[in-house]
Amino acid sequence: MSGAVSPQAGLWLAVVASGLYHGLNPAMGWPLAVSNALMQRRAQALLAALLYLAAGHALAILLMMLPFAMLASVFAWQREIQLGASALVIGFGLVLLIRRRHPRVLARIPPSRLALWSFAVAIAHGAGLMLVPIYLGLCRADEMDVGHRAAQTLIESSLRTALAVAAVHAAAMMAAGGVLAWLVYRYLGLRFVSRSWFNLDAVWALSLILVGGISLALNAGAGTLTGVA
Fold first, then answer.
1. Residue 61 lies in a domain
2. What letters, b where the CB count within 10 A reaches 16 and e where it falls short, cover 56-69?
3. By three-state DSSP, how is residue 14 classified?
4. What are the φ and ψ backbone dihedral angles of 58, each rounded to 5 degrees?
5. Residue 1 within a domain
6. Can you list the alpha helix ranges (DSSP code H) found in 25-113?
7. SS3 helix, strand, coil % of the chain, rounded to 5?
8. Closest CA to 95 of 61, 134, 131, 126
9. DSSP letters along 65-89, please?
10. Residue 19 reports pLDDT greater than 80
11. How confident is the model at residue 57 (pLDDT cuts 50, 70, 90)?
C-alpha cells in the first residue's frame, strides 16, 4: 500500500509524539515559564524561559544517547544492545512506579536556573532514556549497507541521528509546552493551574514500561525471525 507509513517515518513520529507528551507534562517545566513571564510582566520572558527549558532537555537526551551512538559500529552485538536498552527502560519505569519520591538534588537547584533544572529533571525522570530504543531503531532503519561502511562513518552517522532526535524532540516539547504556557499566561490564569493540576508520575512510569516493552517485543521477534530464516 502506497499510503502505509514506513518504519523510519513511524519512529520519527514517535520522537515528535514523545516531545509533545513531555511538553504538556507540568513536571518538565512549563509552569516555570508562566511564572517567569508573570514576574517580569512581559510575554518575551515566556519564550526565553521555554528556550532554556528546551536546551536543558535536549542536552539531557543527547547525553543519554551518546554512549549508544558510540556502540553503533558493534555489528555483532546490535540486537543485544537494543534488547539491553529496552530492558533498561522497563526497569527504570518500574523503579519510578514503585518509588515515587523525587531525587533530593532537584530541590537544591533554584528554578531560576532553568536550563540546569530542565537538564536534571529530564535525567531524573528518564526522559532521555525513553528515547533510546526509538533512536536505536532509527539507526537500524538507516543502515541499508551497514556491512560496507567503515566504523568511523557509522559513528558519525549515529551522532548526527542523535543530534537530530534531540533537536526534533526538544522542538516538539517546546511547541506543546509553549502553547499551554501561553494559554495559561494570556487567557486561563493561575487558577487554571491550581484547579486542573494533573500529576503524570504514574502515567510517566507506565509510558517508560510501554516503550521499553514494545521495543523488547519487536527486537525479540526480529531475532526469532532471523533465527528461523
1. yes
2. bbbbbbbebbeebb
3. helix
4. -65, -40
5. no
6. 30-40, 44-70, 78-98
7. 85, 0, 15
8. 126
9. HHHHHHTTT-GGGHHHHHHHHHHHH
10. yes
11. very high
148 — pLDDT class (breaks 50, 70, 90): very low
pLDDT above 50 for 144: no
The tens digit of pLDDT for each residue in 32-54 reads 888 888 888 888 889 999 999 99
Q: Which three cell numbers stand for residue 60?
A: 539531557
Name the DSSP class of 6. Answer: P
Asked whether the beta carbons of 12 and 106 are under 8 A apart, the reply is no
Q: Is residue 148 in some structural domain? A: yes
> Does 176 fall in a domain?
yes
Q: For the chain, how many structural domains are there in total?
A: 1
Say if residues 174 and 20 touch (Cβ distance below 8 Å). Answer: no
Summarize the confidence of residues 182-194 as an average pLDDT. 79
Domain that holds residue 191: 7-228
**Cβ–Cβ < 8 Å for 91, 134:** no
224 compared with 109, residue with greater pLDDT: 109
